[in-house]
Amino acid sequence: MIERLRLLWADLQAWYLRLNPRERVMVSTAGGVTVVVVVFVVLFLLSSSADSTRRRTETKLQRLAEAEQLAAGYAEAERARKQAEAALTSSDLSLPTYVDERGKKAGLDIPSLTPHGDIPVGDGRIVQTNVDLTLTDISLPRLVDFLGSLEQGPGVVRVTNLRIEPRPKDGVLTAWTTVTAYRLKAGP
Q1: Residue pLDDT tens, the chain, 188 long
Q2: Is 94 left (phi over 0), alpha (psi -120 to 50) or beta?
Q3: Residues 6+ apart with CB under 8 A from 87
Q4: Does the model's pTM come out above 0.85?
Q5: How is domain 93-184 classified at the architecture level of CATH?
Q6: DSSP strands (E only) in 82-125
Q7: How far is residue 30's CA from residue 146's CA, in Å, rounded to a whole number?
């Protein structure tokens, strides 16, 4: 194989030496241009291949970052779900008693407290308990503090309905509200 290449090279040298000087310049120029074109094409192909690889890598890095962000979001959502379940599970309180105790702590007289039965929510795994109450002759700041203290208690307790009738000349109001407690249904 090497011997054949040497013979071919020797034939090319002999052919080149048989050319007159003008033809040699033309052949040398054409050979130089051909070498430059081949080098340019090779460099262009390598550059475009490198750019393509770089773009694919950047795309994959972006997808990886999105996947990591989704995983973090999922982990956060799972943590929040477990916290909500724990709050729902730990809540074994009697809502009327809880509201009455909070009212006494706040120094409020609750003239009307009407409990309602348990109502299944959604797929039935969560149960809600409602209590309607009326607060008369209460100032707005005391009402806000009282309702806030109800929602800060154990389990999941929320004020779900509030109707206010202000009496500006006395500086007080009457409030009708519904307080709802949520818990997980006991047993299967």
Answers
A1: 889 989 988 988 888 888 898 988 898 899 899 999 999 999 999 888 888 899 999 999 999 999 999 998 998 888 887 877 776 666 567 878 888 888 888 888 788 888 888 888 877 778 888 999 988 888 888 888 888 888 887 778 888 899 999 888 888 898 899 988 887 776 65
A2: beta
A3: 155, 156
A4: no
A5: 2-Layer Sandwich (3.30)
A6: 112-121
A7: 95
